[in-house]
Amino acid sequence: MVISIALLFENFFSFIDVLIFLYFFSIFAESKRKVKIWYTFFLLLVSIIVNQLAFTENVFKELLFICEFLFAGLLYYKTKFVPLCLLTTIYYIGIGIISLTTISIAVSLFGSTVELIMSNTLDRILVVMTAKCLIIILIAFLDRLKKPSLYTSNRRFIIALVINLTILVIGLDFINRKFILKSNQGKSVVLFLLLVIFSSVMLVVYTINEVSKTEQKRYNYELMAITNQMNKEIVENVHSQMQEIKKIRHNENNSYIALELLLEKNKVDEAISFVRQKISSIEKIPSYISTGNYILDALLNYAKIKYPELIFDLNINIIESFGIDGSDFCVLFGNALDNACESAFKCMKRGEDGYVKIELKSEHETLLLSILNSTSEIQDINNLKTMKKDKVNHGLGLKSIEQVVDKYNGIKEYKYEKQTFCINIVLKNK
């Protein structure tokens, strides 16, 4: 059986149908799995079979497509049937509305009647695929508003969208004036017009991705600078502690020499008095935190030195190496600890209790972190924003925490109750 060119085009665009539908449901049905290649080709095969069986009966074919997509969405996305039907209905109503709009525009541009457009297979494909290209842009825009990118602002996204839609309109008008009126809407012109539409949509996606990559690089540079600064502070803190330890060792060595001389001369009373003085002086030396992890020790000791008035309650049970990259842990724990200490310190300055409670455990290849602090500021956990003066850099701190959590497929949770704020984080060791 020789398959006509029009049928080949319809089969090819069935593949586009599958991709658009899966993209639509991956956003609004909140699927947790990526689209699998084998599953996509399975849907494509079913779509081709439907086209072969019902090529001339468009209504019956569309009903088969709806049933196919309903069944596919039910199996693949495991969405409840009622929301699935609602989403499918919205999808096809959207295509229908935009198709009618596209036909109206085509009639005004090309001077053709609706019957003439729909009777020609290539023209009909052009109208439907134009509508679906617009559906892609609309879905991407709604997804962009639903989950704003960490790197690209909404303003730049909208600018890129407007520019590329303008290019699309100008291109259509140019083709209409230069080719269609002189060639009586030849098949080659229709196909070329279809190519321009797809190219414009691809240009939208490419431009947005390039802008996002540029913004991501800038963000990574800023994040790297913050991380390097924190690492520098950690190294300086560890270095100062090592110098303090060397100083203590040197003094203790001299003390033992003096004690030895006193005992050799049988000056027991003076030796006892000397030992008591040493014990009294040792009690005045600040106790440094030791957990077995030098990054954690440095961050905790730095916080204790910076905020000596705060009460720290520590419950730490971790192995020396718990599977999290050192720089990532530095960014995560350092930012969370700094936010907690500053909030508790503000609370203490207002005459209230200032405390920070830290629980850190590593078990079953999972890192559990909980930091609870006193606060006098009402926190909206659904719209959490930094309360610090330097909102740009400290806003990056909050985003940095989220980035590390996402990197390790982790979970974060904010809680605010009874003048306390708590952040709970669970990370899976890589």
UniProtKB/TrEMBL annotation:
Keywords linked to the UniProt accession: Membrane, Transmembrane, Transmembrane helix
Domain Sensor histidine kinase NatK-like C-terminal intervals: 327-427
Membrane spanning stretches: 6-25, 37-54, 60-77, 89-113, 125-145, 157-176, 188-208
Gene Ontology MF term list: identical protein binding
Species whose genome carries this gene: Holdemania filiformis DSM 12042
The protein's name in its UniProt record: Sensor histidine kinase NatK-like C-terminal domain-containing protein
InterPro entries from the UniProt entry: HATPase_C_sf, NatK-like_C
SUPFAM superfamilies documented for this protein: ATPase domain of HSP90 chaperone/DNA topoisomerase II/histidine kinase
Superkingdom per UniProt: Bacteria
One Pfam family from the record: HATPase_c_5
